[in-house]
Amino acid sequence: MISATHFHAMIIHFPIALLMAGFFSELLGLITKKEFFKNAAVFLLLMGALGAIAAYISGDVAGEGIEEGPLKQPLDRHELAATITLWLATITALLRAATFYFKYNRRWVNWAFIVLFTALAGSVATTGYYGGQLVYKHAAGVELTLPDFGDFDDEN
Questions:
Q1: For the segment 54-100, what is each residue's pLDDT rounded down to a tens digit?
Q2: Contact 11, 55 (CB under 8 A)
Q3: What is the dihedral of CA 94, 23, 100, 30, to 10 degrees?
Q4: Are 48 and 15 in contact (CB under 8 A)?
Q5: The architecture CATH gives domain 4-136
Q6: What is the distance in angstroms between the CA of the first residue and the CA of the last residue of the chain?
Q7: Distance CA 13, CA 10 (A)
Q8: Global confidence as pTM
Q9: Domain-wise residue ranges, the chain
């Protein structure tokens, strides 16, 4: 059965990949001045922001019930980073979509999006780092089971 923890682990990689690819596409668009990269960055950012919303909600559900204990502090750090990432992704996506729709293409706007996107990419990396710490350092969501060796008696 798929739990909230499993679902979060399954979907989280999509917004990470989309947002990071959007960031690099935005950079390439700025450097090469090619509209393809700028347009791709807009759509990657929008899809990544929608994915970030789904990832945030699934992570919130997966973390329910952890109110104390050794996972509380690492989970709080991850949740704070995820909240910052969610807000940065949403704000950046909405502003970028508006400038794309209204074809508002000024040099300072392009540089402003590079700054916003850089902050977003850093926030995505930080959130991912803390999420990885939860799993690989604190074993959050890891289910340990012993293999079934069959019926063993103590008799030889």
A1: 999 999 998 887 778 888 899 999 999 999 999 999 999 999 999 99
A2: yes
A3: 140
A4: yes
A5: Up-down Bundle (1.20)
A6: 39
A7: 7
A8: 0.85
A9: 4-136
